[in-house]
Amino acid sequence: MGPTDTRLRTQEEITARVKALEALLIEKGVMTAAAVDRLAEIYENEVGPQLGAKVVAKAWTDPEFKARLLDNATAACAELGIGGLQGEDMVVVENSPTVHNVIVCTLCSCYPWPVLGLPPNWYKMPAYRSRIVREPRKVLAEDFGFGVPDDVEIRVWDSSSELRYWVLPERPPGTEGLSEKELEALVTRDSMIGVGAVAS
Amino acid sequence: MTARQDATELGDARRRVEALVCDLPGGSEQAFDQPWELRAFAMAVAAYHNGHYEWSEFQLSLVDAIRRWEQGDGGEPWRYYEHWVTALETVLSSRGLLSEALLDDETRVVLATPRNANHHKAHREPVAVSPAISRT
Fold first, then answer.
1. What is the pLDDT of residues A4-16, one digit of tens each?
2. B103, B105, B109: best mutation site toward chain A, by most A Cβ within 10 Å?
3. What global pTM score does this model have?
4. Cα separation, B86 vs B92, whole angstroms
5. Does the ipTM surpass 0.90?
């Protein structure tokens, strides 16, 4: 049952192992139970893609903000109190009638947490990580039911620990009368990953 | 997250953690599928916060664990947080903070102890009674 043991573990076994690990580490003074609880609490319900949606809606309604966002996403998000982490470098790639963008991390699953929250399971799956690079049009159509028109170029961006990408989707037609708040509600997580559409 | 909320202690703590994990594989749709995943996540960050290893060591260890899985025979399903646990064990062992043998033993003890041993039975009586000090 060592760390490199590839034997299949049941949920019960892994639960027991993690529990045992926590007990040993607390006993050894590596950490306190309170610290673990505190960190768990921070993440249990919080971070999510609504933060990214806020940024997108602002970019749709404020051309100057959009220009700043495309120029330096990290700084523009910080204006809204989002992210602002040291050493962080986010790049926003903009969809257009001729270009559709999609993000991946081919090595592990680098992801713009401050704006999109925790990555979905499939984003971390080896299948997505390799296939989206090899056959993006097919993966989007077959796995996500998201057909990109043939005359639109698809660009796949590989995030790393140095640079994390996310997508600025196009503002849907017919939304001219909507407020920024109403627009926020249309922005889906998948549209900011590039595997889905904005709600309409 | 507004700028105001962000200034709270919780916001600060979260920012510090995000600075670490934004470069790592994360959780699931609901962040974590199982409670143990959240505990394992929090433990890795807590040990780092206490200065027991560099975050880059943990990151490399995680990438290694995932790579080993990828090079495997495919018999094992993809369970991300198992790799997280493996990475954590590996880093702690290399720092002399964890004995795998001891962990194996402790795990067996936990498994042998029925979880919530009595929680499937209705307890219809007070579980403890502290008698009145005096009666009138």
1. 454 557 778 888 8
2. B103
3. 0.53
4. 10
5. no
